[in-house]
Give the backbone structure.
Amino acid sequence: MTTDSAPVSNFLRTIIDNDLKSGRYQGRQWAPPPSPAAVRRAGAIDPARIRTRFPPEPNGYLHIGHAKSICLNFGLARDYQGICHLRFDDTNPEKEEDEYVHAIIDMVHWLGFDWVQDGTEHCYFASDYFDTLYQFAEALVQAGHAYVDEQSADEMRATRGTLTEAGTNSPWRDRPATESLTLLREMRAGKHPDGSMALRARIDMASPNINLRDPVLYRIRHASHHRTGNDWCIYPMYAWAHPVEDALEGITHSICTLEFEDQRPFYDWILEHLAELDQLAAPLPRQYEFARLNLSYVVTSKRKLRQLVTEGHVNGWDDPRLPTLAGLRRRGYTPGAIRLFCERLGVSKADSRIDYSVLEQALRDDLDPVAARTVAVLDPVKLVLTNFPADHAEPCSAPLNPHDPDGARRKFPLTRELWIERDDFREEPPKKYFRLFPGNLVRLKYGYVVRCTGCVKNDQGEVTEVHAEYLPDTRSGTPGADAIKVKGAITWVSAAHAIAAEVRLYDRLFRDAHPDRGDQDFLQAINPDSCHVTQAWLEPGTQAEPGTTWQFERLGYFVADREESTTSHPVINRAVTLRDTWA
Ligand code: ATP
Ligand code: MG
C-alpha cells in the first residue's frame, strides 16, 4: 500500500508498454460503428493508441468493485492516449432493464470519466451486435466449427465429464453442416421451444479445460429484451458474445477479473476461427485478468445487494450504508476519494481482501485539504457562562480550512448560552480528561478560556446545564490569549444562533469483516446499530445545500443528504469519523 504519489504496481502497464514498443496494434484500422473485417479494412487508421472497455451487465447498480474496473480501464485509456468504451453487456434478456443503463451512465460520469473521442460517443450495447453475432454463427456452422445439439440441458451437463474424466460426444455432433444450418435458422425463426436444442462450438469433448468441451453459443429463450423487444428468441452466451464484442469494437486490451482466466482459450478460439473465416480483422484483442476487489465489511454481489434492498434491510440502492456507488455518493464519498482508493489498490493477479478502513482513509485524505470546517454539536447539553452579559454577542471567527490559515474565514457569535457536547463535561473526570469538570480551565475554541463551576441536574440525575465563568482577557487572537495555558479545547455553538439539523450517524452495515464467508447467511451478520439519528445544532451560517461536504471539527466528515436535506430541515450524513475508531 502506498500513500504517496509513487506509481502503484500495475502489471498491465508493462504489457501495454511492450505492445506499444513492438507496434502490435499499430496501423490497425477502425471505422465506427463497430464492424466486421470487411468494413473495418475500409476504415482509417485508429487514432486511439489502445482501446479498452468497461462492460457492465445492466442488471443492477454499480458498486465499489466496479469502480476498480472503471478506474483501471478508463485510467489506462487516458494515460496511453487511448479510448475506453462503455459497453452494456445486455445479452441476457430476463434480468436487464433501462433503469440500470441510466444509473450506470450516471455513475461512470460521476466518477469523472467519459467515452467521447473527436465527437464520437463510444457507448455501445452488445444487443446492437445480435445480427452480426448471428451471421458469425452461421459462418462457424458452415465451416464445421459449430453444430446444433438436440440434447437437453441436463444431458449436456451429464455428458460434459468432470475435471478428471473426459466428456462424451453428443450423438448430434457429426451431423452435416447443412442440417445444423437449417436447424439454426429454425431456432432463430422461433420454430422450437426453449431448451429443445442449442448451438454448440465443435472443439474437443476431451479437453482438460472444461470450457473447451463444445461450449454452447446460442440457447433458445422466448423472452422479450429491453432493447430488441421480441426480435430474437435465441440469445448468445456471454463467453461467445464477449470476444466478438471486443473484436468488433477494435478493443486491444480486454481486461477482466481472474475467474475468466479459464475462459481465455475459448476467447482466443472464437477470435482465431472468425479471423480465419475473414469475419474479423487482425490484430485481435487479447484478454488479461486481474484480481477483483474484495472489501471487508461489505457484500458486493448484485444478488445479495438486491436482497438487502428488496427485503428492506436498507432503504434503496442508494442507501448510504451500501457499497453501491450511488450509496457511497449519498454517504459523502467524492469521486476523487474513490479514484484515490482504486489507485492505492494497484492491480495484481493475487486475490486479497482490502480492509474497509483503506476506503475510509482515502476519503479523509481527499477531503482534508479542501473541505470547509464548521462546528456541529451532535449530543447537546447547555453551557451557561454565568458572568457573560445576557444581551451580548461577541463576534468570533475561524479559518474555513486550517490548511489555508490566511484564506476565507467563517464568523459566528459567542453568547451567554452555548451548546456543547454532553461528553465534554464530567462531574467526576477520569484520568487524562482535560475538558470541563468543576474547577478546570478549558478553551472554547476561537473564543475565551472558561473555568467550570458546576452543573444543574434534573430529578433523574441527568445533567441539564453546565456552568462556567469566562476569563475576559483570554479571547483567541488577542494578546491575552496565551497568558493562560489550558490542556483542553472544546467546540461550541451559540444556542440562540444555532441551526437545528437531523444528523445520521452511520456505521458499518455488517459486524463481520467477511459477511458472506462460506455458506454463512450474510443477513445474520447485519449490524443492528448501523444508523443512529441525532438532533444536532450547527454553527450559524452552515449552508446545508444537498451534497455539500464539511469537516465537523473534532467529529469527522459529513454531507448534506442529496435526497432529503432541505434548508428548513437539514438532514446530514456522517461520511466518516476523523480517525479510524473501528480497530
Ligand atoms: P456481480 O458478480 O456483483 O453480479 P458482475 O461481475 O457480474 O458483478 P458486471 O456488470 O458483469 O458485474 O461487471 C462489469 C465489470 O466490472 C466486469 O468487467 C467485472 O469484471 C468488473 N467487476 C465486477 N466486480 C468487480 C470487483 N469486485 N472488482 C473488480 N472488478 C469487478
Ligand atoms: Mg458479470
